[in-house]
């Protein structure tokens, strides 16, 4: 049930069945992860390196990233 949110430099995918709702993503990058909007993940709302760093802090693995090759 993983859904991918496409950005210019990095894509972020989310699997709600794996998520433990720690809130790390929303607190760490609120411009990227905002549960009050649709889509709730906007990878281009921050620098790709910052998005990747935040995704890597996801304790459940519900968030994953894929960088685009240049």
In short:
This protein has 70 residues and is α+β, with helices and mostly antiparallel strands. Helices cover 19% and strands 19% of the residues.
Total E-strand runs? 3
Could you tell me the mean pLDDT? 96
Distance between the termini: 28 Å
Radius of gyration: 11 Å
Please explain how this structure is put together.
This protein is an alpha+beta fold and 70 residues long. Helices cover 19% and strands 19% of the residues. The protein contains 2 helices and 3 strands. The protein has helices at residues 24-28, 48-55, and strands spanning 3-5, 10-14, 63-67. A 3-stranded antiparallel beta sheet has the order 1-2-3, covered by helices on one side. A hairpin with a 4-residue loop joins strand 1 and strand 2 (10-14). The model has no long low-confidence stretch (mean pLDDT 96).
Which terms would index this structure?
alpha+beta, 2 helices, three-stranded antiparallel beta sheet, 70 residues
How are the SSEs ordered, and which strands pair?
Blueprint: E1 3-5, E2 10-14, H1 24-28, H2 48-55, E3 63-67
Antiparallel strand pairs: 1-2, 2-3
């Amino acid at each position: 049930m993983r859904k991918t949110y496409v950005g210019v430099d990095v894509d972020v995918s989310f699997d709600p069945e794996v998520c433990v709702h720690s809130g790390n993503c929303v607190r760490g990058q609120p411009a990227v992860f905002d549960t009050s909007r649709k889509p709730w993940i906007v990878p281009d709302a921050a620098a790709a390196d910052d998005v990747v760093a935040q995704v890597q802090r996801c304790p459940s693995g519900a968030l994953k990233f894929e960088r685009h090759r240049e």
